[in-house]
């Protein structure tokens, strides 16, 4: 029995406005599969993307043009995009870490790219081999050239709610990084809780810091990890603040691959269940989505981390 | 790194009032262990309860006086209570299904009991062998006699948000059942989402129906299951409505025992993580709680369903 058979949904009665429609930014093919120890065959990736598009998802983060030395799981980016039947009305953004990545993305004919920045000094140095400021010296020419080439650019901001080395992250610092990405030409920010430590209160705090500094809530997406079980509660808090783009991963792909039960990205199925309950449109065929994640779990040889998928397809 | 190291929590800025303190009603020893295929030895149960009390939990639902034929896992209720070192300041409520159960509970010297009612006709017939009205003929004398004996009585209302046979459940029907339990002498209702289908919107709808009918929000507890990943988001919705008692199960015990990954009750650890983030007092020593659940998972021979426990103790 789905939530939709349980009566007509109604809006939360709190006086806050929930959005009437949410765009789901599906990150499973990129953020999920890049964490697999065994490389997924390109034809499986193509079928995964095709099934997700048929299930009604209209934003599919397809792959990353990071150097294959760093992420061998996505070394087939060119071949994937060449094989992919890109559908009308579906965006297939790709991650580009630098100018070389942008060259590859342009050659592959992509129309949407994303850059991946850090909100904290330590993570910038560890993950990007640059400081908090130095990362912009790398990104700004990439964003500028992407825009000149007519591409849309999304800016990921990681460690927005906490950092394993620095602990708490000041919302002002997150806003400073985010605004610099917007000023450089990003059309949207995805605020990432990379280590899963956000709670509803810190989500509201960071979103408020952005809107108080003049950033429109419509330019902000949220990207939660379920490490401590908070991802969906955090999403609810963000929706109540008016956020209309939510990142999620079909079947919850993206957990640590060497621990069967590890939890990663917010599962798209769990998100859709919440949105259905709240009466928020999303355009996704729930049954087709669950079927796709169950199929992918079989390909990966382990159960889906999504509670919905396990309950319905387990 | 715990959420508490991530900076001082602040209140949600929505204008709604969150409670300053929440009472966690720990149901793991009863609602969790009653689902185990293999009976847990009584000395393990006693140690589990003792560890939970030492971790600062002050309401521990200890066992059930249901007939051992139905729940052999809790057939040791008398022995458990006899062995248990009941601490000052800690309540040890027990479930009593009928007059015989109350006799046993009184003989064991309990001070808090709970009765288990259904919000729907079908579940009442299937689980309690009585209709929706007939269940009161069974409960009312139990509640009356418990009260006369000086006991506090809690009323569980199951299937408040959906029923596997009836689908949607009208909030008015839930309110009617709940009010009848309050009128009979229950001091508190625990509104149960027995099959995990509630979402934030239906939680608010049911709570509003109660308060609009004159029931104080302080007389209502919530009891969520994480079948579809919604339990914590539902809890957040309930807290924002002013609910101050939340049922949860240490380590998320209570999943279907024959499926390793099945999800059951809201995990107490995930709840504590949320409450810490929201700056809501609860009195629980988080590390001692996680350690207890990790210990219990070892006793049960399978990983804890709690995301927090898996992340910190896995």
From TrEMBL, chains A, B:
Q: Domain of life, per the record? A: Bacteria
GO annotation, biological process: ketone body biosynthetic process; L-leucine catabolic process
Q: Which UniProt keywords apply?
A: Lyase, Metal-binding
Ranges for domain Pyruvate carboxyltransferase come to 22-290
Which Gene3D superfamilies does this chain map to? Aldolase class I (3.20.20.70)
The record's InterPro entries line, in alphabetical order, gives: Aldolase_TIM, HMGL, PYR_CT
For this protein, the record's SUPFAM superfamilies field holds: Aldolase
Q: Which family does it belong to?
A: Belongs to the HMG-CoA lyase family.
| Protein name (database record) | Isopropylmalate/homocitrate/citramalate synthase
């Amino acid at each position: 029995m789905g939530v939709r058979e349980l009566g007509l949904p109604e809006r939360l009665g709190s006086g806050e406005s929930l959005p009437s429609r949410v765009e789901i930014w599906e990150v499973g093919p990129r953020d999920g599969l890049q964490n697999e120890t065994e490389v997924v065959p390109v034809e499986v990736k193509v079928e995964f993307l095709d099934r997700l598009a048929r299930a009604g998802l209209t934003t599919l983060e397809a792959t990353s043009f990071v150097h294959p030395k760093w992420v061998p799981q996505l070394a087939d980016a060119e071949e994937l995009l060449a094989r992919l039947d890109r559908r009308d009305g579906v965006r297939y953004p790709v991650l580009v870490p630098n100018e070389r990545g942008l060259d590859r993305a342009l050659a592959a004919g992509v129309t949407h790219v994303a850059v991946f920045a850090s909100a904290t000094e330590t993570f910038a140095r560890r993950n990007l081999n640059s400081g908090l400021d130095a990362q912009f010296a790398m990104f700004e020419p990439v964003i500028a050239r992407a825009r000149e080439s007519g591409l849309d650019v999304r800016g990921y901001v990681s460690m927005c709610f906490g950092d394993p080395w620095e602990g708490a992250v000041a919302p002002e610092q997150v806003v400073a990084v985010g605004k610099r990405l917007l000023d450089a030409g990003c059309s949207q920010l995805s605020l990432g809780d990379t280590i899963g430590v956000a709670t509803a209160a810190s989500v509201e705090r960071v979103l408020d810091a952005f809107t108080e500094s003049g950033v429109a809530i419509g330019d902000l997406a949220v990207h939660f990890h379920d490490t401590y079980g908070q991802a969906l509660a955090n999403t609810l808090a963000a929706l109540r603040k008016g956020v209309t783009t939510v990142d999620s991963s079909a079947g919850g792909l993206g957990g640590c691959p060497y621990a069967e039960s590890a939890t990663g990205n917010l599962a798209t199925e769990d998100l859709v269940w919440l949105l259905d309950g709240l009466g928020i449109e999303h355009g996704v065929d729930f049954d087709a989505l669950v079927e796709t994640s169950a199929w992918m779990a079989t390909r990966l040889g382990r159960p889906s981390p999504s509670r919905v998928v396990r309950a319905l397809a387990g």
